Amino acid sequence: ETLKARAVLSEVLFDDVRDEQHQREVDLDARHDQKHGWAALHAAAASGVAEVVMCLLRAGANPTLRDDHDRPPYYLADTKNAKAIRNAFRTYRAEYPEQWDWTAAEVPEPLTEELKDKKRDREREKKRRQRERKKVEKAAERQRQEEASRAAAVAEKAAERERKAREEAEAADRVCHSCGGGIVGTPFTRLEFRYCSTGCVQMHKRELMAEAALRRAAR
């Protein structure tokens, strides 16, 4: 569509429409496309060149003219530059509100300087909100990272305490219950006690028996 539009525009020599003499020679509303029934303004809108649209409008091209598919030029502004094309129509309508039947041309409200200012204000406000949202998101992410770091530190300390407790428990299992010395190799056991030698086993046995006798005598 864009290539076709530019071909149509080349036929009407749109580069020269600013020249008054040429305007008298060229019928800007003539149909130059047999497939769609486009006039120059249709082709300009479809081509995506806003400057050409404005030039043709100022030269007197009719924005209410419809092609063979009953579409006014404004309807064809669907290229990647559509926003600029539509703004050109709306700006021209603001400058010349009585020149054409803009309702028939399907051109929406005129784009006045006041509306442009409001639009710029909305865009600035939108960007401001986006910046604020990014700040909030960054702050939230920073807080999540800090909380994750604190949680990791707490978990690390808990793991360290558990490791030390396990080491202490393991060390306690290697202490003789009689002499208190370290147990080397396989410990000797009696009941729930561990010993480093058979001598300690017998000594602790006598101590336990003596303690039991004292408890019986005290009753």
TrEMBL record:
Signal peptide: none annotated. The keyword Glycoprotein does not apply. The keyword Cytoplasm does not apply. InterPro entries: Ankyrin_rpt, Ankyrin_rpt-contain_sf, ANKZ1/VMS1, VATC. Keywords: ANK repeat. Residues 175-209 form the Vms1-associating treble clef domain. This is Vms1-associating treble clef domain-containing protein.
